[in-house]
Every structure is written in structure tokens, then in C-alpha cells.
Amino acid sequence: xxxxxxxxxxxxxxxxxxxxxxxxxxxxxxxxxxxxxxxxxxxxxxxxxxxxxxxxxxxxxxxxxxxxxxxxxxxxxxxxxxxxxxxxxxxxxxxxxxxxxxxxxxxxxxxxxxxxxxxxxxxxxxxxxxxxxxxxxxxxxxxxxxxxxxxxxxxxxxxxxxxxxxxxxxxxxxxxxxxxxxxxxxxxxxxxxxxxxxxxxxxxxxxxxxxxxxxxxxxxxxxxxxxxxxxxxxxxxxxxxxxxxxxxxxxxxxxxxxxxxxxxxxxxxxxxxxxxxxxxxxxxxxxxxxxxxxxxxxxxxxxxxxxxxxxxxxxxxxxxxxxxxxxxxxxxxxxxxxxxxxxxxxxxxxxxxxxxxxxx
Length: 360
Prior knowledge:
Layout: H1 2-38, E1 43-44, E2 53-59, H2 71-79, E3 92-96, E4 99-104, E5 109-114, E6 119-123, E7 125-126, E8 129-130, E9 134-139, E10 145-149, E11 154-158, E12 164-168, E13 176-182, E14 187-192, E15 197-202, E16 207-211, E17 213-214, E18 220-221, E19 226-229, E20 238-242, E21 247-251, E22 257-261, E23 274-279, E24 285-289, E25 294-298, E26 304-308, E27 324-326, E28 331-336, E29 341-346
Parallel strand pairs: 17-18
Antiparallel strand pairs: 1-2, 2-29, 3-4, 4-5, 5-6, 7-8, 9-10, 10-11, 11-12, 13-14, 14-15, 15-16, 19-20, 20-21, 21-22, 23-24, 24-25, 25-26, 27-28, 28-29
């Protein structure tokens, strides 16, 4: 009798989930259309000045990326007492062909949201090794992605399904805080924050050279934290957030100094807690600042062109943002760490110097 009651309860639960799933497939779409119709677009600068940055969406879970949660998965999660998957503290993000990958040290995981195939994975280990603090990402060859873990002091290459392809754990890495991959030369650049340098590997993980050293002069660093390829140059020039020198430096792939800008301060155009860095096709340099809770856009001479964002939890607001990624279609992805989400903007339009004003 108890056995029959249990099965009856499960069947009832299954039926409710099916009904709930059917309803949820209809209601959000209607609500989303109404919201889009009623809400004015969030842009920077404010009208009547022509817009240069536009807020598009926020992503806190796979469903926000358009990935459905099947009734079978909903049933399994309910029976196991597990709620839906959400990000905990995203620190880095990359996107390619509809696949969004997020490094989430708060969840000790890497999320692979594969919208074209309507599936997602929460990767908690690379091969047989559990991830502890995956903080950085870089798009790799053949649909793969590189992940660095600053506790394990290792770099992992994963395929699109999250399977381990290669581990880079030798050569004395002490805090691999950022990554960049140059597909043309098959070179992997690993920013070691603790050693104040960039270590360069070939496509097979063999050490080639080190770039930089501790200091405040050109091509020297003081706890650098983030790095990206300068996509506007067509080569493998590096953009590096030299965090405790409060500046951005650009070096060529051999370590030759190219340019730098930045100074410590609390005003617009200053750098207080610089984090993620990226460039768009027009050559603008985007710098995330965790203390300002904003993204500032500069030209190569360090002139501020535009700043967007402020402290808060709403659209276009940030709470200790970290990484930034700019896709080929000029979409700007920001890892809004303490709001547990990734925000997406349409950018690459900033072109005029901004006026000086205090951010905080």
C-alpha cells in the first residue's frame, strides 16, 4: 500500500511538472514580448546624444541563454532536491558560434552553454582532477577552450563537450590568472600574477619563453591580473592589466613594449581596481574597474571616450565585475561576479573623449 502511494505521488508530480513545463514554454515568451515593447532601451550616453553602447540582456543560468530544461531533467532535479543551475561568482566569459563558456570559481566549475545544440554542461573537473578556482578562459583551436585554475596552478584545454584534451602544469606556474591564445601562430600566453610575467607555450604545451618581470618600468609588472589579444591589430599583440601599477600595457608577442596608459585615482578616466581588458575592431580599449563598478573605454593614448555602468543590481549595473570579452559581432560580455550573472551589451561605437567627472 505504501509502495502504491509512493508511485502515485511520483506520477502526480510528473504530471504537474509536464503541465508546468508546457505553461512555462508559453508564458515567458508572452511576458518577454510585452517587456520588450514597453521598455525603453538602456543606452550610453543618454539621449539626445547618439548611443554608443546598448544593454542587451543578462544571463544568470542556462535558460537565460535560450537553453530549455526538459521535463525529465526537471523531474530528476525535483526528486533529488536540487534547484535549477545558476551561476555563483562568474569571473570570465568567452563566446563563439552560440556557445557561451563561463569560468565560475564560486561554483568551482566551468559552464558550457551550447545554444545551437540546446544543451549545457557544468564541468566540475578536468579529467580526474576536481576544479578548485577556475578563473580565466581563452578560446582555443577547433572549438576548444583553455581554462586556468589559480589554486591548482594548472591550465586545462577542454573540448566543446568539456572533455580534457591537455594539461599544462609544469614550468613553474604559480598563479595563472589570465590566458590568451593566438590561433595564427598556435601560441598560448599565460599571465602569471605571482611571478609578474607572461609565460608562452606552443600548441603542445611546450615552454617557449617568458615575457616581463617585476617592476614599474616598461614591460614590467606588479601583480598583473587580466590579459587579452589586441584583436584590432590583426596580430598577437597583448593587452595586459598591470593591476598594482594601475595601468594597461601593450606588448608584442616577443615581449617588446608598445604602449601604456593609466593612473591611480577615483575620477573618470582613472584606474582604481582595473580588472578585465579587451579591444574592439576599431581599436578601442575596454577596461573593467571593480571599484567603480563600471567599464571605461579608452583610445590608445589613454583618453577616455566613454564609461558605462554603476553600482547596483539592475540592468547595466555591476557589483565587483571582473572579466570582459568582445565577440566578432561587437557584443560585449561582462562577468558581473557578485550579481551572479553575465551582462551583454552591443558596443564598439565609442569615438569621442568624455568629460572629466567623479565616478565614486
